[in-house]
Amino acid sequence: MADTAELEVMPDDWQRALAVVAHPDDLEYGGAGAVARWTREGRSVVYTLATRGEAGIDGMRPEEAALVREREQIAAARVVGVETVEFLDHADGVVEYGLPLRRDIAAAIRRHRPELVIMTNHRDTWPGGPWLNMADHRHVGLATLDAVRDAANRWVFRELLDDGLEPWDGVRWVAAVASPRATHAVDITATIDLAVESLREHRAYLEGLGDASMADPSFIRAAAAEAGTRFGGGLACNFELIPM
Q1: Could you give phi then psi for residue 174, rounded to 5 degrees?
Q2: Model confidence over 192-212: pLDDT tens digits?
Q3: What pTM, to 2 d.p., does this model score?
C-alpha cells in the first residue's frame, strides 16, 4: 500500500552537501531538481560516484562506456549548478559493501565536510511496489551511512590522517532520494525543467536503455507530481531524512 502521509519540509539551515551515489544518472532520476534549487540558493553541492557506470550500456564495451558516461555525468551536473564530480572507480554492477568502499566514502566526506549527505534509495525495494532495488544502490547507501560515522572517528581509517584528512563530525542529516520511506520533500516547481535537462544529458545511456518509460524524461515530471500530492501540490522531490 502506498504511503499517503504528508511530507515535511526539508531542513534548509545548511550550506554544504555531498551527494554519494553508485552510478552516473542515479541523481538525475530523482534528486537533480532539488540540487538545482539548492545551488540556485547559493549552496554548495559536490557529487561523488562509486563507479563510472561502465556496465550500464549493453551495446558498448565497458572501457568506452566509462568514458562516455563520465562525460555525460559531468555535463548533467553542470546543468544543475554542480561543478565538482568525483569518481571512486569501484566496479559497476558488482559494488561490494565493505571496508574499501567505506574508506573511500569517508575520505570524500572528510575532504568536502558536508552538513547534508545525499544518496539514493538504500532500501530493498522502490516506492509503490515490490520491485527489487539493485545491489549497487543498497551497498553504496549502507556504506554511506556507515562512512558518515567513520569520517567522524579519528581512529577509524587512520591512514586518512596521513593524507591530511582530519575527522569531520559535522554531518547533520543523510537524505535518501526515492526511498519507500520518504519523510520530507523540497518544492522543485521552479527547477523541474533543469532536472529534465540534466537527465537528457545522459544521451548514450538513454539510447541504450531497453525500457522506453525510463528513457522518457517525462518520467521525472510524473514522479515529481506524485510526490507533490503529499506536499501541498505542485512538484516535489522527496527524501527519507535520517538525522545523524
Answers
A1: -115, 135
A2: 999 999 999 999 999 988 666
A3: 0.96
Residue from 163, 160, 177, 139 nearest 38 by CA: 177
Kindly report the CATH class assigned to 8-243: alpha beta
Cα–Cα separations (whole angstroms), residue 6 to 113, 175, 184, 232: 31, 17, 8, 8
Q: Select the more confidently predicted residue: 30 or 163.
A: 163
CB neighbours (10 Å) of residue 155? 7
Q: What is the domain partition of the chain in residue ranges?
A: 8-243
Whether residue 10 contacts residue 239, with contact meaning beta carbons closer than 8 Å, is answered with yes
Query: Please, where are the H alpha helices in the chain?
Result: 32-40, 62-79, 99-112, 135-152, 159-162, 192-200, 203-208, 212-215, 218-228
Backbone angles phi, psi at 119, to 5 degrees: -145, 175
